[in-house]
Specification:
Helices cover 47% and strands 19% of the residues. The longest helix is centred in the first third of the chain and has 25 residues. The relative contact order is 0.10. The N terminus is likely disordered. The structure holds 6-O-phosphono-alpha-D-glucopyranose. The site of 6-O-phosphono-alpha-D-glucopyranose has 6 residues, from loops.
Length: 489
Amino acid sequence: FRRLGLRGMKQRLLVVANRLPVSANRRGEDHWSLEISAGGLVSALLGVKDVDAKWIGWAGVNVPDEIGQRALTKALAEKRCIPVFLDEEIVHQYYNGYCNNILWPLFHYLGLPQEDRLATTRNFESQFDAYKRANQMFADVVYQHYQEGDVIWCHDYHLMFLPKCLKDHDINMKVGWFLHTPFPSSEIYRTLPSRLELLRSVLCADLVGFHTYDYARHFVSACTRILGLEGTPEGVEDQGRLTRVAAFPIGIDSDRFKRALELPAVKRHINELTQRFAGRKVMLGVDRLDMIKGIPQKILAFEKFLEENPDWNDKVVLLQIAVPTRTDVPEYQKLTSQVHEIVGRINGRFGTLTAVPIHHLDRSLDFHALCALYAVTDVALVTSLRDGMNLVSYEYVACQGSKKGVLILSEFAGAAQSLGAGAILVNPWNITEVADSIHHALTMPSDEREKRHRHNYAHVTTHTAQDWAETFVFELNDTVAEALLRTRQ
Ligand code: G6P
């Protein structure tokens, strides 16, 4: 009953995230072509039962003119998306600056910017001002589309100031906030100059969600230590008002991957790849080219493995797909050259006239090619230095049928909490340990592979993205209903 909207109609859900799930390309003054990114989050949210979802966010393009904005708004409406227009200056300060140069590294334990990344304190303050202004712009768009009874689900570190903007506007809005990154230990979080304002804003939400119990615990500790509030088993209490805090581990739409493996195009790719790498074991890495993904460390571990196991030199290949991301942020530019330098050196050292040990691609792959790669590879290396969840590990497991490939997984990825029993867990900073794990994975007896795979496959196919989204929305409705009951008693 609580889940349904008025008179049995579907409840409206407004999903607010920095980025819309579309890529928009301008084809003329008033013409846009749109491609919806069919990722896990999108299908999860569109598949939630009894809910009518719309998405509010930035389309990732600068549209300074009104004609272009009107045309894009109209085109997006057909995809159930509503744009927030951000100009270049605000993107620079809010997205490249505060979100990706300050919050992102801090939340992944890489610390606050040092001198070369942060010129002056004033720079920090102007970026935080831009962050708040951008969050207010998202809030303004929410107000325009909000109807009483709607559920508003804010996503990620870009929008920590949004719950406050929304509740200041209308205290009765049902607001949830979910973080897709880790929430770090309070000892790390408390170095953030704007620590108070952000915590207070997030606490304005009715329900706050994280991928793992540890992240939720860190958040509650930050609230008790920094704000002096009371942590309870339910969440955080401030003057009689409770903000519920809980873990909601995300999943993927595993059926979509299973179905893809039956498609002729994917089967063709699988055949081509199998022939291309015949006689060699294939290891795979698929990551955004981000410092949190530990790509240089992974490649150095592979080098150590080759060094210590010369008999494997022409019998194994590492395919590393490194998807370019946030290319305007200097740290990401430096990482690209660092990775290229290491790959070049190792290929020069161990390559032969006919084969190289590392195939490194600086680009994304289409969905079919990706599924085929997941299906044919013997070992996946997911060795993030820190990662909120990491769904590549889930996608790999979903695409491994009879092959029963081995997953090497960082203990610092949220996914280690759910796939830990099936994967080989590693500390990605320990290159020797990762090199040994590569050897273990490549030589693992088939009954052990089978046992490990069975565990992971059962988890990935039963804890789906749709369950995750449904549970969050249900709990949010429930939390608000209970709070209402309490105030009436
Ligand atoms: C992470 C974040 C997402 C973000 C994605 C891609 O997964 O949690 O919010 O959308 O990275 O990054 P980008 O900066 O390209 O949106």
